[in-house]
């Protein structure tokens, strides 16, 4: 029985399905954790989260059990115990759970009760809920082990408190969303701690996994709601917390000595960091040597180039300017200026010869028809083919640069500017693109590898957006002002409002009805879009899953 415990919080990245690498990372932390009593790792740390349908492979389940036993055996040396999240089989059913590994064996296992099945989560597809868990005794402390979603609902923590839990240790795979760090602490963790009178440890994973990104930002809150410790966001961190059993009115309580409180990224740096980390992990984990992207002189491609440089370093980013007959001298200058500010390679490959060749090839078939959107899209598709050729020949992944506003209404060319392996802006509305571009020109992200100071000419931010696919073209020729468009899209996409509700909010009926129609008819394009990092509560793909073919309209 001890009156002091050292609990190490290991906020780590994960590689889904790479059990050997994940186990090695945990053991590496343990080797450095001299004096620690217990090391806590994030949810599903052994197999990676979310595993999706990998979890249906019997071989993965079998190997996870073997790897967990090997980790348990490592604790026979008398060093720190470990709390390790993994998948478990009981009575033929799969469970999301956590194991206490101590003294060479699996000392205890507890299962997740509340299985999220909304947004990015599909846990009811894979797991059965466990029973309400009992506390786990460990070196004189009774540990309550709720898992992620378990603390978002009161019953699990209340049950643990009634059964004598003295410290809640909650392992998490909690993806980033805008303003979610405040919701976790103020809206959830403090409520559970105050409600039960028990301190709560929240350990979250960090890093990108396909379309979701995890921000870390682990913390400890006391029973009065005080923030006892705060780990940084957007990077791995291993922090010791010191706990002491102190006298209290009703016997004794465990309290954590106040620790460091890291400053979390404010808005919009948090959005920018999400884009950087998601792209970095996607490129590196999938073993691409770098990225290539079209640099048009416009704001979307400029901020994507900056994100890529901050994620990978300038030496791994290749930009290509592909001027057409309609490309302005201003765009050429702005692309060159952006490339110089970022320190990246910039090649110029004119597409005029290819446009002329396609024109000649199609002329007999198109005879008698005036040029229209077809010829505009052809330019975009030539650019997409050119960039894919560079990707195929030299190996870098193609980054695509369309924003959520454009993707929402189909203002993007399938097999053209939608070509690519990953899109950092997929869940960023155009107004968000402007906001992060202004921010990045004035600041540098905490996890960035790019330069201090501006990353694009100011003119890129201030000039009217244009696809430059016909003479004097402006986005405003086809779309409402982006402030108006994004307001309508927030209502339609994020909040599922009807046309009438948005009209009641002050928007023009004809405009809203047109945008709703465009949103619906562009669904087939979005199904063929590359993955991109989730930022808000309703991204296209993992969150918003609409049928391509349907006849429902709200106005």
Question: How would you characterize the overall build of this protein?
Answer:
The protein has 555 residues and is of the alpha/beta class. The protein folds into two domains: 253 residues, Carbon-nitrogen hydrolase (Nitrilase/N-carbamoyl-D-aminoacid amidohydrolase), CATH 3.60.110.10; 206 residues, HUPs (Rossmann fold). It is 37% helix and 19% strand. The chain is built from 17 helices and 19 strands. The strands form four sheets. The chain has a seven-stranded mixed β-sheet with strand order 5-4-3-2-1-14-15. A six-stranded mixed β-sheet has the order 6-7-8-9-12-13. A hairpin with a 2-residue loop joins strand 4 and strand 5. Helix 6 crosses helix 7 and helix 7 crosses helix 12. The chain is elongated. The mean pLDDT is 95.
Output the CATH topology of the largest domain.
Answer: Nitrilase/N-carbamoyl-D-aminoacid amidohydrolase
> Shape from CA axes?
elongated
Separation of the first and last Cα atoms = 68 Å
Beta-strand fraction estimate: 15-25%
Largest sheet: 7 strands, mixed
Q: Helicity level, as a percent range?
A: 25-40%
CATH level-two architecture of the largest domain: 4-Layer Sandwich
Give Rg in angstroms: 26 Å
CATH H-level homologous superfamily name of the largest domain = Carbon-nitrogen hydrolase
Q: Give me the secondary-structure category.
A: alpha/beta
Total of DSSP H or I helical runs spanning 4+ residues: 17
What order do the strands of the largest sheet run in, or round the barrel if closed?
A: 5-4-3-2-1-14-15
Number of DSSP strand runs: 19
